[in-house]
TrEMBL record, chain A:
Principal subcellular localization: membrane
Subcellular location, record wording: Cell membrane
Keywords associated with the record: ATP-binding, Cell membrane, Ion transport, Iron, Iron transport, Membrane, Nucleotide-binding, Transport
GO cellular component: plasma membrane
Superkingdom classification of source: Bacteria
Signal peptide per UniProt: none
UniProt lineage: Bacteria, Bacillati, Bacillota, Bacilli, Bacillales
Membrane topology designation: Peripheral membrane protein
InterPro entries the UniProt entry points to: AAA+_ATPase, ABC_transporter-like_ATP-bd, P-loop_NTPase, Siderophore_ABC-ATPase
Keyword Membrane carried by entry: yes
Domain ABC transporter residue range list: 2-236
Pfam families to which the protein is assigned, alphabetical: ABC_tran
Protein's name in the database: ATP-binding cassette domain-containing protein
GO molecular function, one term: ATP hydrolysis activity
From TrEMBL, chain B:
Coiled coil regions in record: none
Protein's organism: Savagea serpentis
Molecular function terms, GO-annotated: transmembrane transporter activity
This protein's name: Iron chelate uptake ABC transporter family permease subunit
UniProt KW keywords: Cell membrane, Ion transport, Iron, Iron transport, Membrane, Transmembrane, Transmembrane helix, Transport
CC terms in the record's Gene Ontology section: plasma membrane
Similarity field: Belongs to the binding-protein-dependent transport system permease family. FecCD subfamily.
Lineage: Bacteria, Bacillati, Bacillota, Bacilli, Bacillales
InterPro entries linked: ABC_BtuC-like (IPR037294), ABC_transptr_permease_BtuC (IPR000522)
Amino acid sequence: MIKLTEVQKQYTEKVKIGPLNIEIPKAGFTSLIGPNGAGKSTTLMMIGRLLSIDEGQIAVAHMDIGSSKSKDLAKIITILRQENHFVTRLSVRQLVGFGRFPYSDGRLTLEDEAIISKYIDFLDLTELENRYLDELSGGQRQRAYVAMVLCQETEYVLLDEPLNNLDIARSVQMMEHLRAAAKEFGRTIVTVMHDINFAAKYSDRICAMKDGQIAAYGTVEEIMDPEILTSIFETKIEVIEGPYGPIAIY
Amino acid sequence: MSTMPYSTKQEHIAMPSEKHESNRSAKAFRTKKDARRYWIILISLIALGLTASYGLLVYNNPVPVSSPSFIPVVMRRVDALIAMLIAAVCHSLATVSFQSVTNNRIITPSLLGFEALYSVIQTGTIFFFGAGALINFVGIGSYLFQVVLMVCMSLILYGWLLSGKYGDLQLMLLVGIIIGTGLSSVSTFMRKLLAPSEFDLLQARLLGSVNNADSSYFPIVIPIILVIAILLFFFARKLNVLSLGRDVATTFGMNYQASIIYILVLVAVLMSISTSLIGPLTFYGFLVATLSYQAAPTYDHRYIFPMALALAFGILTSAYFLMYHVFDSQAVVSVIIELFGGIIFLIVVLRKRSL
C-alpha cells in the first residue's frame, strides 16, 4: 500500500502541490491522469523519493520514505523517469543487470543472471540483449529501461509516461506487458499517463489530478464520467461504451 | 523485430521464459571477443610503458655500464620516472571518476580551477615577494600548503554548491569554471607586470614537467595516492551505478549526494597532489580518459581504470622518450602530449564519430 498523508510541495506562493491524501492499495495498476502542470510527475517523484517533500508523510508498505534507509527502499519501490541519461558502451543486458544492484551490489550471481534473462525475455529484448544502448531506437531503449526496473523485483513500480516514444503497436504491447507484470508477479504499478483511453483500458484504478490537487480517484468506471473528465481537462469530453469498456471522445 | 505479429506477443506474455542459457551473461564484456581485445590492448600498453621506461632509464647513458657512476645516473632518472607514474595515476583515475560522476565526457577536473589556483599561488609568490621567494618556495611545507589550499577550495565549492538548497552538479561546474577563469585572469594580470627575468623563472614552473618534481616529497605523496587509488578501485562498482545518473542511482538505493562528494574529494586530492608536484597538464587527463573509453569496450570501471592507467603511463613515458632521444630536445613534454595527443584524439573521434 502506498499512503500519502497531507503531502505538500511548495515551489512558489502560487505553484504548490497538495495537500495530497491518497491510499493506493497493493497489487494492481493505477494511472495518474490530468492536464499538463497538474503535478502528476512531481507526485510520482515524491513517492519514488527522487524529490523531497516539504510537509506530510509518504509511506510505502508501511515504511516511511523520508526516514527509511535508501538501500532497504530499493528492494521495495522503484521509479523510472521519462528521460534517462544513458551511458555509452553499455549493452541492454548489462543495463537490465543493474536492476540487481540493490541485492548483489554489482556482483551478479547465477541466480541474478537467470532473473535478468527472465525480464529480458519478458519484454522481447532477447535478440537485442547484446546491443549497446546507443544502437537502439527510442522505443527499444524505453523497453530496456522498463526491463531494468522490473528486474529490480520490487513490490511497487512507478513509471513516468512509459508510453513516451512508442508507436501505437508498441504502446499496446508495453501496456500488455505492464498489466501482465501486475497480474503475474503481483506488482503494484503506478504510471503517469497522457492518453485517457489507454489508462481506462489497462488500469484498475485512475487518479485524476488538477492544479496540484487530487480531483478524483476511483475505479475506471467511476472516473470515466463525462462530467468529471470535462471539468478536469477543461475540454468537452464525451464518454461512450466501447467493446472493451468506456472510451473518451474529445 | 518490428514485423512480429501481435498474436505471438500474447503467447509470449503468457509464458515468460524461465530458462537461462549459460552463455547469456551481463558481465563487463558483451562477448569473449571484446574481452580478448581488451586484454590484448591492455598488455600492449603496459609493454609499451615498460619499454619506454626501460629506454628512459638506460638509453643514451653518458657513462658505460661498467663505470661506477652508471647506477647514480640511473637513480636520478628513476626519480623522473616515479614522477611520471604519479602523474599517470592521478590524472587517469581523477579524470575518469570525475567524468563518470558528472555524467559528462568532455570535461576534466582541471576545469574546477586547480590549475588556475596553482598558477595564482606561483605567480602571486613572485609578484608580491620577488624572485627569491619563488626560488625558496619549495620544500615539503610549501608543497603541503599548496595541496591543502587546493583541496580546501574544492571542499568549499562542493560543500556550498552540492548540498542544501542548491544541490546542483551543473551549477557547481559552472561556478568552478568561472572561478578558474577568474583566477587565471588574475595571474595573467600579475604576469604582465613582472620583469622579463622573473617571468622566465615563473614560466618554467607553470608548464607541467616531471623535472619539476622533487623526490623528497615522494614518501608523503606515494602512500596518499596509493590509498586513494585503492579506495577508487573498491568504489568501482558503485561508480558504474553513479554513471547512470542521479535518479537511477537513487532508485538503486545509493546515497547519491554523499557518494558524489566522496568521489569529488578524492579527485580534488589527486589533482592537487599532481598539479603541485608536476605543474598543470590540462589536456592530458582528458586525452587519457577519452582514449581509454575507446580502448576498453565496457562501461565497467573495474576495467576502465586499469586501461586508463596503462594508457596514461604509456603516453607519458613514450612522450618523454621521444622528446629526449628522438627529437633530442629538453622542451616541455606537455607540448608533445598536446600535439600528438590532440592528433590521435581527433583521429579516434572522427573515425568512430562518437565520444
